[in-house]
Fold this protein.
Amino acid sequence: MATAQQHLAGDSESLARQQAKDCCFRVFPAPHADGRGRVFVPGDPVFVKLKTNQHEGRATVIERDNEQPQALVDSADPATSAEAGVDPPVTDNAAPGTVTKLRPDFKDRVRVRFECDGSTFHVRPARLTRMFHAKGSCPQIVITDSTDMFRKLARTQARRGDFAVDIGCSYGLSCEVLRKQVGPSGRVLGIDVSKQLVAKAAASYPDVEFAMFDAIEDQLRLQQMCAGCDLVLMDIGGNRELDVVVRAMSAVIRTLAPPTLVVKSINLKRHADAGASPDPDEGTLRAQHAWWTDLTRCAFHTAVRTRKHTNTDTAAGKSGRRFPMHPLKHPPRTTAEGVFICRYHNYDECKRQACEYDHEHCNYCGKRGHQARWCVEE
């Protein structure tokens, strides 16, 4: 008869296969990140990097860069073009609305129409960031490994009126970026496990909603507070262990099924670059099905092995060191008051003279009165 763990393993693998089938995984930036290899086609939603009005950069491609007309285009106001950070066509002092010769250096550019006012401009491909989720497309899972790229995705992937969620919001900087993008008709929710960080973020950005809870452990509350969200950003530690990140991603996809999920993780990005054959121009993972299924299976089995190891009987004269990993390799946890529990105290020895972290609670089960290395909870 199969054990409960075997049933769970089967369920986990089945879920991973379904997620790999239903979602599109990609890395950002793509290997060819200089723009020269990008291919844009009419209808592509894009965000244009502007010199001014950076929150108004949403546009739609209306001409391919390799099919631009060599003779005639609609003329545009040069002053407006300069303000937008793109180059205008040659007007030869013609009145707005007339047609004119296309400048020779426009041949490698992409013509876009801005959502804010319907104006059209020719833009260098390097200025364009694709908005990955389009109406009717499958959920997009975007993996990056740097804070700059993470915030760039926050700025370029949110739309007016969106409901955006930032899991692991820390001091709320990305939440503020999102707030500017979604506008007054949208909503931004920042979530973090630290009471101190949430308090500071709320004080710094009063127009953003913040909540303190563990979004991965408390999935019921996550679903209640974030149902119907359009965009989820997740940064639970850029150098967090790979298996923890994968289980967190799987939980968010299963619980919320957001149209776009942006994940910051150095280890995950490195693993995807090495093992999932990302397309050099688009960043999509060409081997995503096998890659995500295997990755989720390994993450689940790592969790099972860790749980079995913590159930070792220490009462039979065995060592209390049931957690062989370095203390900081274990997930951080807070008390009910939002104070971080000292992992050195729980798993090894805290040598600080005046430790600012909690020494009263177990970092494994959360209860008061014992250390994680002596915990007998399942």
